[in-house]
Design brief:
The chain is of the alpha/beta class. The chain has 8 helices and 6 strands. The chain has a 6-stranded parallel sheet. α2 crosses α3.
Length: 223
């Protein structure tokens, strides 16, 4: 990223950044595999966090050499997941405040999530940051190459009408941090899903999103 770039847009990952949804999609996936007769472990999914549900489910199936009908498996996983949202999904403390602080700082805001649109819309509605509050939303269905490829963040920048160097990404996952840096963007990571030592490639690291300010996203003051 150019040292002269001025940040004009903030791009947020969703699962594990804005919402505590990672445990829910994990539980739904474990339950789906159990229905198919395969006992998998929650930690089996960690290498695939942030890569989209096709890879999330397919990667674990591949680990166990267990053949699945991936579209059907994903549909069933989402059915289970959507049933968990009403009682168990919440915004992380500070998430709503940070998004709105970005708006007050005249930043354009986007969601760029490897999840499918059905999950993104349901999550955003539940946590009080509905679709209309965002300048752009990019889903895993909108790009061919998933994180750690930079495509989803590049598409989000285009949706905001900005150059990549004018954007900052808020991420929680190793794959997401790698994607942000590959896109040439500033990255602020929150250690809400992965331990801090795995997120050192980010430009700035905070333990939780409630500790992130709009000033953190803007980066060091320009001379």
């Amino acid at each position: 990223m150019s040292s002269q770039a001025i940040i004009r847009g903030a791009i947020f990952d969703m699962d594990g950044v804005l919402t505590d949804s990672e445990p829910l999609i994990n539980a739904a996936a474990v339950a789906m595999f159990k229905e198919l007769g395969l006992a998998v472990q929650p930690d089996d999914f960690l290498p695939f966090v942030g890569t989209g549900e096709d890879r999330y489910l397919g990667g674990v199936a591949g680990k166990y050499r267990f053949p699945i009908d991936l579209p059907a498996a994903k549909r069933r996983t989402y059915e289970i997941y959507l049933g968990l949202i009403p009682s168990r999904l919440h915004a992380f403390p500070g998430a709503q405040d940070l998004v709105r602080a970005c708006r007050q700082a005249s930043l354009r805001v986007a969601v760029a999530s490897s999840a499918d649109r059905i999950k993104i819309i349901a999550n955003l509605e539940k946590i009080g940051l509905p679709v209309e509050e965002w300048d752009a939303i990019v889903t895993g269905e909108d790009v061919e190459a998933k994180k750690p490829a930079p495509d989803i963040f590049l598409k989000a920048a285009a949706g905001l009408g900005l150059r990549p160097a004018e954007c900052v990404v808020v991420e929680d996952a190793v794959n997401g941090v790698q994607a942000a840096k590959a896109a040439g963007m500033r990255c602020v990571a929150v250690a809400q899903t992965f331990p801090a030592e795995l997120l050192q490639a980010a430009d700035l690291l905070r333990a939780r999103i409630v500790e992130v300010s709009a000033a953190d996203l803007l980066g060091p003051a320009r001379p």
